Amino acid sequence: MYRKKLDHKISRRKFLATTTTTGAVLAVGASGFSNITHAADKTVKIGFLAPLTGPVSAWGKPGLDGCQIWAEHVNAAGGVKVGDDNYKIEFVAYDNEYDPGKARTGAAKLIKEDDVKFIMMLGGDTWPGVQPLAEKEGMLVSTLLPSDLTPDTKTLIAPCEVHPIYNVTGVEWLAENQPDAKRVVICAQDDALGTPSVATYLAAFEAAGMELVEEPLFFDPATTDFAPVMTKLLASKPDVLCLDTCYADYVHPLCEQAFQQDFKGTIISCTADFYPKIIDKTSKEFMEGFIFQFPDFDDPALNDERVNFANPNEFYAEYAQRYGAAEWSAVSWEYASIMDIWSDAAAAAGSVEPADVLKAMKASGLVKHAFGDAGWWGEELFGIDNAVVGNWPVVVIEDGKAVIKEYRSIPDWWAKHKDLMIKHFTALGQMWNQRA
Amino acid sequence: MLLEVKEIHVHYSKVAALKGVSIEVPSGGIVTIIGANGAGKSTMLRALSGLAPVSAGEIWFDGERIDGRPPEKIVARGIAQAPEGRRIFPDLTVEENLRTGAFLRSDKPEIEHDLDSVFGHFPRLKERRTQWAKTLSGGEQQMVAIGRALMSKPRLLLLDEPSMGLAPVLFQEIAAIVIEIVKGGVPVILVEQNAELALGLAKYAYVLETGRVSLEGAAEDLRENEHVRKAYLGG
Amino acid sequence: MPNRKTNLSSWALGTALVAGLIVLPHLLSFSQREIAVLLIINVLLVASYRLMTLTGEWSLGHVVIMGVGAYASALFSKSLGVPVPLSMLLGAGTAAGLAAILSFPLFRMKGFYFLIGSFAAGEVIRLIWKYFTNPFGGAKGLKLIPSFPDINLGFADISFFEPENYYYLCLVVVGLSLFILYRIEASRIGLTFHAIHWQDKLAEAVSVDTFRYRTLAFVLASFFAGLSGTLYAHYIGTVNPTRFDVEEMVYVLIWAIVGGTATFCGPILGVVVLTIINEIILRALGLDTVRPMIYGGILIASVLFLPDGLESLGPKLKRLFAGKRPSGQLEETT
Amino acid sequence: MGRVLAKVIATMSELLLQTMINAVYAASYMSLIAVGLVLIFGVMGVINFAHGELYMAGAYTVVGLYSFMALPFFAAVVAGMVFVGILGLLMEYALFRPLRDNPLGGLIASIGFLLILQTAAVLGFGVRMAHIKPPTQAKFHLMEGVVLTEQRLYVIMAAVGLLSALYVFLRKTKIGWAMRACAQDKEAAALQGISLNQISRIAMFIGAALAGVAGALTAPLVSPTPYMGHSVIVTAFIIIIVGGIGQLEGAVIAAILYAFVHTFVTTFYNGVLADIVGLVLMLLVLILKPTGLFGAKERA
Amino acid sequence: MTQPILEVRDLSRHFGGLVAVDKLNFSVQLGTIHGLIGPNGAGKTTTFNVISGFYAPTSGQVIYKGDDVSGMKTSALADIGLIRTFQGTTLFKEFTVIDNVRVGCHHMAKASFFSRITGLDRHIESAATAKAEETLEFFALSEFKDELAANLPHGHQRALGMAVALAADPQIILLDEPFTGMNPEETRHMMKLAHDVRDHGVTVMLVEHDMQAIMGLCERITVMNFGALLTEGTPDEVRSNPAVIEAYLGSAGDAA
Q1: D214 assigned to some structural domain
Q2: β-strand E228-233 against E220-225: which pairing, if any?
Q3: How far, in Å, CA of A81 to CA of A67, rounded?
Q4: Which residues between 86 and 115 in chain E have a beta carbon less than 8 angstroms from any beta carbon of chain B?
Q5: Are chains E and B in touch, 3+ Cβ pairs below 8 Å?
Q6: What residues of chain C have any CB closer than 8 angstroms to a CB in chain E?
Q7: Looking at the DSSP assignment, which residues form a beta bridge with residue E224?
């Protein structure tokens, strides 16, 4: 693989680190990295098909920004070596406004007119609009939402975030470290992201021997006042409050409400974007021990050997400097990390053609996932092995700072408890063959 | 002349409502404008108050040109109108209705005085001063409309069809008050369909037919006029 | 009389328009053909909306009705195996049928209340889609909706997956629908709709059953809105509740009002012009993030400077070229 | 046994009380928004679709002045109120006045303005949520397990204070009468020398400023996003319909009714059902009494 | 006496606590011109609205041609020949004159939806247009046929209002304050039209508050006051009835 080829000369990470710093200096004079000519002689276009305006744009726009940084770094380093050629990466974005019809138009444009070799999508509502075209054109497409996967989606991969499966790692860690915390409540927004996540948490709690003391509480995605939600959740005096995969717009007010309504137990959540701001709104003490799944990218612990994402700390610094730390989110690095996996596969395949790249991806069996080496998986939940799972970090807030406590293995959990997961997925109608 | 209207034209979208009308109003007494429905009588008053756009011609009031000015500026100059259909504010009390008439005034003691004098004219309104105006009878509503117009301390009062929908007895009552108002020094332009009544009250009269003045003259002369008798006084 | 002349020129114009529409896909890029398909579907939607407004009632539930057609046709074809062309008719019929039922509570209201009532009814339908995962698929909606079957002509296989072919299919369906809508408007039914709009009491008094005619307008409009929904569903292959929410409805309102509602062509003009501006011109300028702002500015400018809609632009231009003053003043009115 | 029962009852009453407090808060900010919307509709006759975005603008004023520029919180709130009020004046002057005889045009223009405000917020602050450190974390324990935070108390106090002031203003001042007069009969009001332009300006300023202050005060509680207006506008519409369009008191009462129903259903059943109940409430009102619960009787 | 074409039996209509019409009884004979008068607020218009189906009666019956039609919809009543007009100039002002009357012909121009949009209704439509033209002729409005109704002089608009009603094939036509806002000349013209309509075989009933205007026109007059029947009789009987004078002029003496 191409990274290995690089390894014996100079580690890619170190190389990029130096280019980043020199680049940053150069960037003052030049308008950007892309202007710096290099040995690369060809360009490969990658489609970015996600909402860039409208209410869902928070899931698209920061990702595109991250990809631009990624492309500049890679191009500055000479591009991606495929066969004998060095390819520069160029992203072509199309704003699908989270509308399936516009997504189809965008996919048509990206494929037929821009000649892209790979399309990254947010997925969700927009994927079914693209699916027939992608299938017909054999276009390789990635999604951040693995619930898009079915046996029919042969060219769709979920190579970064296998939401919500990784949430089991946090629960497992919690059970091991706080054996007394038994009584759990859970709430989630009532949408395509919330429900499968609830199923996952239910399975994880059951596996850990924890007891759900209230039915899961679903609230409408348009909710702005979370006091009633929290009042209801806390009415049964739980030890553990699970926020499921709530968007940041919900996590913040939920935590704030939990704080104000005197919750004393542990909070577990999929995300905790901008947790320092939550601490501002609550207190350091209150947020101590908050468990979630997304590490800070300026966390030095990410420089761990097992982590495959290149220069997370520098990447974050660059991002924060350009777009502001407030724009950072998980999607900022996730799309970029998918590009890492893609370029590995393209290098291995010696081709940028979608079919070849997909074949190479699947052939290796081992994927250099952002948080460690991982494998293809998903048959039992999604009907197809097109999702990548491996280790996932468990992050805990300690003294006001998110700390990676452990990288836990999802496949290990799955091997022990998959029946529970299938049971809860089935109960909430989330199995691929239950979805319409 | 207090008011001089020179050859004004008014159009509603494409339909011409007034086609070159001229009238003059001296600084005392009642001038009446009579005519059939749709002849342009109300449009005339609306034009005077700035509610209808004057597309040609001029309106002069007390030496000042007022056509094209917004209604509030015209009220400020001293022209008040009790419009057709009374148009009182149903969800305001009687007193609040009357006080809106004094909207542009800031002479507080004077306003209180004028309010008392309106109540003097219309003792029935005094009894009902805190009642919602929508609960009043038709005649009482007409009183509110006239009282409200008086509250602006007008120098010219425009009355549009005050008899409409009122039993003759009630109108007699209102007519008596109008005479009182004129005696108090405020000239009145009275627009009426009921030509009999109007010509009985007024000094001078204009007959409006399809947007034009077809006849004008002293009210008593017009009462004798053949055409007027035939067209407006039932033979 | 200038009648013959206008007849001739309108014939020429019509022929040119039809010819233009037929060659259009060949002048467009692939993705623009995709846009053209969606546009022509929206043309039917907005034209059916105009029929609804003829009786003077403005609905905020029209897009949901479109969705009813889309969902119904998708379910008929996907779950019950009804052949797609038939399921499309059934879908449109379902939309019409639902409108007939809804007319009982809704036509107790008029004007602004009807506007709001139709919004509430639409929201309830959308909630039903969301909460009954079986059969509506919940918040994610339905996907893998069967597409329109390919036609084998022996010498050629016509795949309606291709935007160009689907464009022609839509052109035929929408063209026919527009013809019917136009005929309705030009017939006595249209006269009666207008009569109800301007003076419903008077219409009642001369034996027009206004409730029945309002219902008729609602049902007919819903049929064609539903039909546009089925065209959408079997092309895009997926429907979900968000696709038919009030924001989409606002776009239909915008198309109709910016285009102008006095004539049959106004709303169609609105959707065509605004779609071209938003989907082609603004995108081509690469203004992704600020696109909504510019679009908003265009909306404001259009209602401020063209209060009678884009349709009023035609006569204005004509007058300009004829060298006449924009509005004859006094001599016309005496 | 008895002690267990007593404990259950205590827990239940805690829950009930806490829920009441939650409902009072919800009613407060909703009525601030709904009353502004009603005021604008009453005087100018336009449905201001951008009202939710005015609320958003109020919230972002606090983001800018308090979070970024470190102004005192209440200074930022007042600035937000004034700034959004000025936005309202701008809308009145540039959009609603030229479109006075064209209510549908006013509606479309307000949608255009909504898109502009949203995009401006995205350009200025990004698509992600903004964060505001709350000025106070103080809270009052009304009893065991029943909490009212100071921040929420501000909102409640602002609603009570501003709406009472508005009530007094409308009932007791000349401008207030004039405003009500305009809402009832614009032409007759003009004949009293009331300038429709002036009254429209005042109504638009007050209406927008109320939305702005609601946004500014709740900003630390909701984490503003450029699209936050969307979720409040639908609720606001439901409220003004239940209350009777153009009825200020109706809007307040309907906001309270809606907030209590929604909050209690959320707490004792779930949030999804609460939305359905809200919509069904609106449909019922529309069918049974289309002029709203507190609207005038339909004139025969 | 023949069977009356229209009969009102113990008719009441309440609005909340307000009793607008109180146990009213009267009947209209076929082929007559019948007046319903009374001072303002006497309940004439409400009675009229109940008869024409705009309001349902609170109690009592409306008998038309022997059948109880109380509570029937206006359009259904119009279908069986009971047609009303409106106060003032209620017209389709945005339509041409001929289109106004064509809408009036709604009843006679029934056709299926299919034939409407395919144009197979042409013969029905041409019959309707012919009838509309004939009606315009009758009211001497033919020359304005293609004008917008809004552009007609006021008097002609009122005549057009009657034309629209007459096109709807009435057996009885209810005129709502047909003389309000007319000058004496126009009133005379209108009275002639009413006579012509009656001579056409249509029973005419009219509501007026101006007693003078209909004295010369009606064969019988029903007088209402405070929602109830005051008296009924020939114009002369009514004119000389002291109760009527009292109702109209308050206590008779001080009016003049």
Answers
A1: yes
A2: antiparallel
A3: 18
A4: 88-89
A5: yes
A6: 180, 183-184, 187-189, 191-192, 194-195, 198-199, 201-211
A7: E229
At residue D62, what is the residue type?
Answer: V
CB C117 within 8 A of CB C105: yes
The chain-wide mean pLDDT, for chain E, equals 85
**Residues of chain A neighbouring D221 (CB-CB closer than 8 A):** 225, 253, 256
Query: What's the helix, strand, coil split of chain D in %, to 5?
Result: 75, 5, 20
Look up the ipTM and state it. 0.84
Q: What's phi and psi for E198, nearest 5 deg?
A: -60, -40
Are the beta carbons of B50 and B70 closer than 8 angstroms?
yes
CB contact under 8 A, D188 and B89: yes
Is D67 within 8 Å of chain A by CB?
Answer: no
Q: Distance of alpha carbon D194 from its chain centroid, rounded?
A: 27
Nearest Cα neighbor of B34 from B196, B170, B224 is B196
Residue D282 lies in domain: 230-294
Question: Could you tell me which residues are beta bridge partners of residue D143?
Answer: D146
CATH number at residue A223: 3.40.50.2300
Domain boundary among D184, D209, D227: D227
Distance from the E183 Cα atom to the nearest Cα atom in chain B, whole angstroms: 5
Q: Which domains does chain B have, with CATH numbers?
A: 27-53+70-232 (3.40.50.300)
B141-180 residues touching C, CB cutoff 8 A: none
Instruction: Give the per-residue pLDDT at A40.
Output: 45
Condensed to tens digits (0 to 9), the pLDDT of residues D10-40 reads 777 888 888 999 999 999 999 999 999 999 9
* Tokens 């060095």, residue located: A86
Window from B146-155, D32-41, E33-42 with minimum mean pLDDT: E33-42
Q: Among B51, B89, B101, select the one facing D184 at the smallest CB separation.
A: B89
**Amino acid letter for position C109:** M
Within the 174-233 window of chain B, which residues sit less than 8 Å (CB to CB) from chain D?
A: none
CB contact A48 to C (< 8 Å): no
3 state DSSP class of B2: coil
CB-based burial, D2-23: b 16+ in 10 Å, e otherwise: eeeeeeeeeeeebbebbbebbb
**CA A220, CA A227: separation in Å to the nearest integer?**
14
- pLDDT for the residue numbered C328: 38
What rounded mean pLDDT belongs to chain D?
A: 88
Q: Chains B, E: CB contacts under 8 A, how many?
A: 51
Nearest-Cα distance to chain C for D265, in Å, is 17
